[in-house]
């Protein structure tokens, strides 16, 4: 099984999970880079997973389904008719021999969900980024805080695959609000080098995020809200 980031739009990643000649795509905000990747890699599209209803995560679905009719499209109710398999928190399903568990992770949108594969890889859309988390467009800070607690409860070795390359700017905020730590500064240095070479900084891990992500470190809702508002106004 091979996981690959397909860059799309300005700073999105569409994650591909490939097994033999089949692939699953997560949050295809554009069709063309996915179709190009499938052709170049001699892969067929097997399924699509959607985390939430923002256009930069779903706008490629209709065209992909035209090329691959009848494939399953998993997603929360909020993506509407794009999903023919509507799922919610704690549901399990299997694709390409892999186990997927749905984790409710609302806050960024009212219906945002994440997908935990084999208890090892978390595809978290805009609910969690390396060094940060998504803006709480719904105003439901409790839901976003609860989502972060669910992520924190996962094993430290779980890899996280967010849908955006926001690590560098998130760490610039993290170093301002967290006590100094060698791990944070070393990580920031590594990320700055990767970005200066236009390279990807992901995946990260739950263990690292627990140590360097200020939003994962917020101990209660008030602290989380204060941090989120500080970052939104930065
Ligand atoms: Zn979003």
Structure description:
Helix 5 runs antiparallel to helix 6. A hairpin with a 2-residue loop joins strand 7 (92-95) and strand 8 (98-104). The chain is globular and about 50 Å long. By secondary structure, it is of the alpha/beta class. It has 9 helices and 12 strands. The chain has helices at 32-40, 55-58, 61-67, 141-152, 167-177, 182-196, 206-212, 214-217, 221-232, and strands at residues 2-8, 12-19, 22-26, 44-49, 73-75, 85-86, 92-95, 98-104, 113-117, 121-125, 159-162, 204-205. 35% of the residues lie in helices and 25% in strands. A 6-stranded mixed sheet has the order 1-2-3-4-5-6, covered by helices on one side. The structure holds zinc ion. Zinc ion binds at residues 52, 54, 108, 126.
Helix content: 25-40%
Number of helices: 9
- Count all strands and give the number: 12
Largest sheet: 6 strands, mixed
Distance between the termini: 40 Å
Summed up:
The protein is α/β, with parallel strands linked by helices and 234 residues long.
Tag the structure with descriptive keywords.
single chain; 234 residues; alpha/beta; six-stranded mixed β-sheet; 35% helix; binds zinc ion
List the helices and strands and how they pair.
Elements (H helix, E strand, L loop, with lengths): L1 E7 L3 E8 L2 E5 L5 H9 L3 E6 L5 H4 L2 H7 L5 E3 L9 E2 L5 E4 L2 E7 L8 E5 L3 E5 L15 H12 L6 E4 L4 H11 L4 H15 L7 E2 H7 L1 H4 L3 H12 L2
Helix pairs in contact: 5-6
The structure holds zinc ion.
The site of zinc ion has 4 residues, from loops.
